[in-house]
What does this fold into?
Amino acid sequence: MKVEFYGHVRQYHNLKSEIDRNIQTVLESGQYVMGPMLKKFEAELAAYHGAQFAIGTGNGTDSIWLALMALGIGPGDEVITHPNTFFATAEAIWIAGATAVFVDCCPKTKCIDPEKIEAAITSKTKAIIPVHLYGQCADMPAIRKIADRHKLRVIEDNAQGIGASGAGFKIGQLSDAISTSFIIQKNLGTFGDSGALMTNNAEIDAKVRKLRNHGSNARNVHSFGFNSRLDDLHAGILSAKLKHIDALNDQRRKWAARYTAGLKDCKSFDLPVELPGYRHVFHLYAIETRKNEWRDRLVDFLVQNNIDAKTHYSIAIHQQAGYPWGKGARIVGSLANAEANAARCVSLPMFPELTADEVDYVIAKVKEWDAHHAGK
Ligand SMILES: Cc1ncc(COP(=O)(O)O)c(C=O)c1O
It folds into this structure.
């Protein structure tokens, strides 16, 4: 048996008629950029998030820095996040010209640890960017309280958690804006790049809407801006898939529960933790080996057995070669949990279209590996 890491083509086959119909609608419309399909998808996306506005962008990275820019955050300002996220979270802060301030993650969830945030706040701090890492919400109520105390903005980097929710809170309810990515492998992914920003703040909406389109919202009328638009073909694909996102996430949750039940007695690694009352949407099912040196051995063993395992993200941002490349960066306190996460993370295949046989084969092989490492 061979188990792939991604199921993009399976998902395309399952939703083919709906996706193809939307692609054809766009092709026949003759309007491919800033056309009616984008408008329709933006309305659907805003409604899905219970937000007033959704703005399609070129990608998830742009969504973050466009939001920062719309909030007037740039050179001389500091933005707090954590270093065990995809590189783009910090990259977006640097693109905006601000200083990235790194604090540690929570050892359980791997999301930013709210208890570490306050020590990092200075007179220059302007925003916090929590990441809903792997598909589980960060502790937004705690983050919101800190932001209110210090008058900070909060942008949720929700590239990985569309459809997730917390205990008594929804994504977007406790922040200024939600950024997301629709790159291929995301829970809601297209066949290429694109992203979006959701907000209830009319000023952020108006600014980002212009900034993404050469500083223009009327033909021939411009101010300084960029080209970062979500084109209509991708909007059509995403519109077709959005209708299924809750069912697709439920399917991920089902496979996650099967992994957890199958692997719960293993002793050489820790399993992902879903906090009580939270809806984790398992963008990734990431386990952590109990020893650093076991991570690559487990990945190699799985790959040798035709299971495509990966690591997310095996080099923390502050440990990348050349960091911080002349950009503004500050580390506050120990980053031991984030560094351990980077050193020990192994992602098992996770996508809605997996089969029970594939999941059971992965469980069997991981258990076989565990039997040789548990207690050592
Ligand atoms: C947490 C996180 N933030 C930001 C991004 C950037 O999104 P994009 O690749 O669409 O620029 C990604 C994914 O790629 C991500 O996983």
Summary: Residues 245-263 form the longest helix (19 residues). The two ends are 29 Å apart (CA to CA).
